[in-house]
Amino acid sequence: MVEVAAERGKQLSSRVSEEGAGWACAQMGTFAQLRPDRHGFSWLNLRTLWLSRNEILAGLFGDPSGQVRARWVAAQKSRAAGTSGTESTGSTPSATGAEIDPEFRIKPALGESFSFLLLGDTGEGDASQYAVVPGMLKIGEGTSFALIASDVIYPTGSGNEYGDKFFRPYKDYDAPIYAIPGNHDWYDGLGGFMRVFCDAPPLRPKPDRGLRGLLWRKPEKIDEARLAEARALRGKPSQQAAQPGPYWVMESDDLLIVGVDTGIRNVIDKGQTAWLRRVSLDPRPKILVTGKPIYTANAYKPSKLEEGGTIDDIVRDPAHRYVAAIGGDVHNYQRYPVKVGDRVIQYIVSGGAGAFMHATHTIGRVDAAGVDEDDFRCYPLRGDSLSFYSQLYARRLRMKWLYLTPDEALCVMSEHIRNQPVRTVRGPVEITRRMRWAARLLGAWPWPFRLPVDKVFHRYLSELSDWDTPPFFKQFLHVSVTPGELTLRCFAATGCLAQEVEPPLEDEVRIGLS
């Protein structure tokens, strides 16, 4: 089924037509009927900003994620050994009763061939998250499990918000879901994440002296009755997942999937690093799934190891046999095929499964790690990203001259990147001074007076625009594994009914495992 859908999806993608990008949305998708209400959260809400303060505090006073993670891991290993330990309260009833592997291994019965979904940065609980669900359910039919890479719950990872931001949207996905946390999940001290995915009781409070301890947001107490009600939405035996900790390794006959926890400030603590080095010695090929991408926006940003070096030192070691590294956190899709010695490692950003879209038109001509521009892939296309932002600002600032049609934006970006337009332009387009000035102000290339279009926009200005109308430019991955080959496919979700019925295939890469 997926092979047929993929072949059809290639002809329906944004790389082929404006309709495939969702610009000509004849009918809204069914996702609108799945939402429990019309309310998301607002970054403009002062309470929300205050609850999210741990990101700023971690930058100013140091990130305690490593120490807290070590406590969570110690508590889980005590549970695995059948001892109470001293870290957890031990007062929360178990939902699964599953045993915990001391090396944090997950061993589902997968067989030689299987497939799974990967969703990144999902949990806003609004239209942009629910828009992904219909296509995900269609393409995900028959998959063995799904993974969420980073930021399961926005804005602060609270265990009391999993109902409408995790259990409800995926209630009809008939397989287990595993996850690795993102920085937003850590704003709750990982309490909600560990309770939901690892069935862990809360840690005992540990005072943190100084200004950080005074200001730091403490984990929110979970309403167990409310959580039990939410769990019932995914209560079938086929949907249950037993996850040992915030990082883990999933084993199959011919592939390991290694999930790592990058905390708030993208540093891997010594305990997790030692575990990662042990896991990586296994002779089977591997995929790394991480909360932070190693390459993004034509820049190299590998997670630092607390002991020195970076996580990419482990990924690139030929003895470890990593074939791909997939990271969330950045809310779009990017793929960098990087030549490392005599092999190619696919470095992928996949964070577009629910949260607000981060711009791609700010990515210049790609040359990172020797990757050629023609071999780089992104979604949305840079031209669609530029046109999207031009429409938003033209409307909100009442500056009609900022507006660039998809064709105009495609041509402006092609001139800047110095390549042929990815999509065939409908009729001649004359690039004018107005278009270039609009692109400058919208951040298409470096300029001192650019309008905010990336993370600043996401954090402070996103609610100034109506994010409940297509196209959303969301995406998810379908990954299929056979004894000799791994196939990664990026499918799009626009919010339009046409793309729900036949999800567009925006990218595909096949990787040998022999």
UniProtKB/TrEMBL annotation:
Residues 80-99 have a biased composition (Low complexity). This is Metallophosphoesterase. Residues 79-100 are annotated as: Disordered. Gene3D superfamilies: 3.60.21.10. It comes from the Bacteria. Pfam families: Metallophos (PF00149). One of its GO terms (molecular function) is hydrolase activity. It comes from Nonomuraea cypriaca. InterPro entries: Calcineurin-like_PHP (IPR004843), Metallo-depent_PP-like (IPR029052). Residues 115-194 form the Calcineurin-like phosphoesterase domain.
